[in-house]
Amino acid sequence: MKNQEALLQLFIDILEKEAKPDDAGIPLGISNRHIHLSQNEIDKLFGKGHQLTKIKDLSQPGQYACKETVTICGPRGVIEKVRVLGPARPATQVEVMTGDCFKLGISVPVRQSGEISDTPGITIIGATGSVEIDRGVIVAQRHIHMSPEDAHAYKVRDGERVMIKLASERGGIFDNVVIRVSSKFRLECHLDVEEANAMGLNSKSKVYIIKNNQEEM
Amino acid sequence: MKNQEALLQLFIDILEKEAKPDDAGIPLGISNRHIHLSQNEIDKLFGKGHQLTKIKDLSQPGQYACKETVTICGPRGVIEKVRVLGPARPATQVEVMTGDCFKLGISVPVRQSGEISDTPGITIIGATGSVEIDRGVIVAQRHIHMSPEDAHAYKVRDGERVMIKLASERGGIFDNVVIRVSSKFRLECHLDVEEANAMGLNSKSKVYIIKNNQEEM
After folding, report:
1. What pTM value is reported for the model?
2. Separation between Cα atoms, residue B14 and residue B21, nearest integer Å
3. Cβ of B161 under 8 Å from any chain A Cβ?
4. Domains annotated on chain B, with CATH
5. Are A199 and B198 a contacting pair at CB < 8 A?
6. Interval B137-189: pLDDT, tens
7. Distance between CA atoms of A178 and A162, rounded to whole angstroms?
């Protein structure tokens, strides 16, 4: 086995060097469960014409955490204090952990943000009322936000899936990390709390693209 | 990149074939938070001379889930209904998820079972009393139980760390998986709930050793 392992390591090293513009790594953002609301739902949950109250900017430009929280209710249980993220979106979307699904009693697919067809609904309780959505609950697909310039530097394309290496006591590799490219995005890898905990990561951790499946560009 | 990736895949395939006696994979056991108690603690929590009540055998021979549960209390919060696993052990040990540490308000190291020096303590509440242990809370190091015969077949040694491949929609590789060999063990990989969720695994999933760091045997 020994020679083969040395060769494997060599190839991993080569791939890392090729795929990585520098040694700084990609910043990590760890997402807890949260909800994006449409203005229609905001009206029902917090009062007609209510405007979300920003308490903290998030790393992606224009996105922010709000003072508002909601309770989400499934057939088996509820989860309180689910943070609302702003601004309002065209469609309401609830992003939960896999572990939350057991507590709520619903089966939730892993999806990219915005891909809510054939996803379960849930009951949402706000400060002034409640609403039952018929779809919109997802477990977030891990992904990396980046600008077109970053995508060029990393030699990746929007929608491509890459592998990322996580260096820690609980380290390893996550596969199926979706690249999302937009001039509005800042370079950042998004994992959920369970993914970060499983790899022993915190908000100061960096991730490294080690392989991509693209054709030569 | 293309040729290098093809070569990398080739080497992974070779290593998989070498390290894997057959294609069936290693069964997965997913551990939720739980506690092992010494008879001294059982006496304090459930009454002098109390005997644990088995409700279900676990996959490792002689180990079982008990009817008894406890509440564990940290400086920031409590977690109820923590399952007691039997039989009684020489030292009490609490195994929690990384996510539990935030709720409890304690910092917990990743450790192998039994390695509880320099670990935090916690307050435990049972049916008839409570006890404060000064150490014994760990996050379980991921590991694979196997018999000496399995170890021979997989070409691994007790205490060795290997990588495992997880094939799923959220797949990837976990590094630093400790091999634990005993004639009392049945072949099974143990991950905690957060690790399983991060990789989209369930109790029917299989794991595959893809690399080991040993010298030639």
Report:
1. 0.88
2. 13
3. no
4. 22-29+142-216 (2.40.40.20), 33-140 (no CATH)
5. yes
6. 999 999 999 999 999 999 999 999 999 999 888 999 999 999 999 999 999 99
7. 6
